[in-house]
Design goal:
The chain is of the alpha/beta class and 262 residues long. The chain is 31% helix and 21% strand. A six-stranded mixed beta sheet has the order 5-6-7-3-8-9, with helices on both faces. It has a three-stranded antiparallel beta sheet with strand order 2-1-4, with helices on one face. Bound molecules: adenosine-5'-triphosphate and magnesium ion.
Length: 262
């Protein structure tokens, strides 16, 4: 049983072919995370799956009547316009007070109804976006970089929340993330995208694979490998315990040197 699927999906935007031959499925109650460098087509893939963008080749299949909660990567909110959380939850679709209350407590923000959106912290703001997406009682949550702007503890807390929401609502989650550390713990499956699917698998299986070590297993160096690799051909797998030995001066090392092989 599949909620949503792509089969050999191609997407062209203007003159550019952004996605080629993407095949994937999301099943009920699964948490699937898409990783990939900027411009690799992650948001485009989500939008094509949701039917916001047309396929130029292949096809997208959605279960009939599928209820989706979508949080786009960029939200056009006029920061100068006063708006309470309660009002925001009723846009674009009206919801009852009871629904708003339920959604807000589900994301751990009971009682913020009357607060101004602009007064929320980054983490609270992202939770309100999630609460709004939950109003449709979705079978599938589609979240495009839901932890943008959060610090690492905030991010970890948000992923715990997503796992909790999946647990209580049974909704499947398809999300885009850049955080290689928390993603592996929070996902049933990870898909690495770069215009096409480079690799994918369960964290458990993949974490012992050389491809995983090359892509995700070396802390920030793993992130670097991910961002540099372009195709699913050869990766250099020679750095099994290489932490601390490979400083290439890439200027992106944020010091998260712990291994994440668990
Ligand atoms: N309307 C458009 N017309 C032409 N090209 C576009 C259009 N929208 C996006 N693109 C291009 O499609 C590619 C993929 O964009 P997309 O937003 O899907 O990437 P992404 O993986 O989500 O990136 P990021 O990590 O920055 O969010 C980019 O090269 C982008 O320039
Ligand atoms: Mg994007």
């Amino acid at each position: 049983m599949t909620l949503i699927a792509a089969e050999g999906l191609d997407v062209r935007l203007g003159q550019t072919t952004v996605l080629t031959g993407v095949t994937l499925q999301v099943r009920p109650a699964e948490i699937v995370t898409i990783l990939g460098p900027n411009g690799s087509g992650k948001s485009t893939l989500l939008r094509a799956l949701l039917g916001i963008l047309p396929a130029s080749g292949g096809r997208v299949l959605r279960q009939a009547g599928l209820r989706v909660g979508y949080v786009p990567q960029r939200l056009m909110i006029d920061r100068s316009l006063p708006m309470t959380v309660r009002r925001f939850l009723s846009l674009p679709q009206r919801c009852s007070d009871a629904q708003a209350t339920t959604a807000l407590s589900r994301v751990g923000l009971p009682g913020v109804d009357a607060q101004q959106m602009t007064d929320l912290s980054g983490g609270q703001f992202q939770r309100v976006l999630l609460a709004r997406a939950l109003l449709a009682d979705p079978q599938l949550l589609v979240l495009d970089e839901p932890t943008q702007g959060l610090d690492q503890p905030g991010e970890a807390a948000f992923y715990r929340l997503i796992a909790d929401v999946r647990e209580t609502t049974g909704a499947a989650v398809l999300m885009v993330s850049h955080d290689l550390h928390v993603v592996m713990a929070a996902s049933d499956r990870v898909i690495c995208l770069n215009g096409h699917i480079c690799c994918e698998g369960t964290p458990r299986v993949v974490s012992n694979a050389p491809e995983y070590r090359a892509l995700f297993g070396l802390g920030t160096l793993g992130a670097l490998a991910l961002y540099q690799h372009e195709h699913d051909h050869h990766h250099d797998h020679g750095h099994d315990h290489g932490e601390g030995h490979h400083h290439h001066g890439h200027g992106q090392n944020h010091g998260h040197g712990h291994d994440h092989a668990g």
